[in-house]
Amino acid sequence: GDELTIRNNYTITPSVNFSTLEFRYQMGTGASTYTQEKTIAILGLGAGVAYPDTSTDCITLRDANTRNNPIVLQVRCSSAAGLINLSTKVSLRRR
Predict the structure, then answer these.
(1) DSSP one-letter string for 10-73
(2) DSSP category for residue 2
C-alpha cells in the first residue's frame, strides 16, 4: 500500500444556480479502468458566482493497474461552468 495524497485547489463558476459539483479520479487502463467519485457541493449562492474549492484525497496504490497507469482528475458540473485550476499538489507516501 503506497498512497498518493492529492490536494486540489480550484474555482468554479456555474451558469445556473443550485448546480451540483462532482469530482472523480479515473484510474487504470483499458477494460480495467475504474473511477473514485465524490459529490463536492451544491452551488447555491447564485449563477455566475465563483466558488472556491480546496479538497484533499488519498488514493491507495494497491494494484499494478493503479500504480502503473495515469490517474485522470475530472470535474463535472450539472450546468455549463468555467473552471480555473489554481494548483494541484501530489505527494507519494511509500510503505
Answers:
(1) EEEEESSTTEEEEEEEEES-GGG-EEEEEEEEEE-S-TT--EEEEEEEEEEE-SHHHHTS--EE
(2) E
Cβ atoms within 10 A of the Cβ of 23, count?
19
Whole-angstrom distance, CA of residue 3 vs CA of residue 95:
8
Residue of 94, 31, 26 whose CA lies nearest to 66: 26
> Tens digits of per-residue pLDDT, 57-68?
999 998 999 999
Of 52, 54, 48, the C-alpha closest to 81 is 48
Q: Is the pTM of this model over 0.85?
A: no
Cα–Cα nearest to 26, from 60, 69, 89? 69
Within 10 Å of residue 51's Cβ, how many Cβ atoms?
19
Strand partners, 13: 82
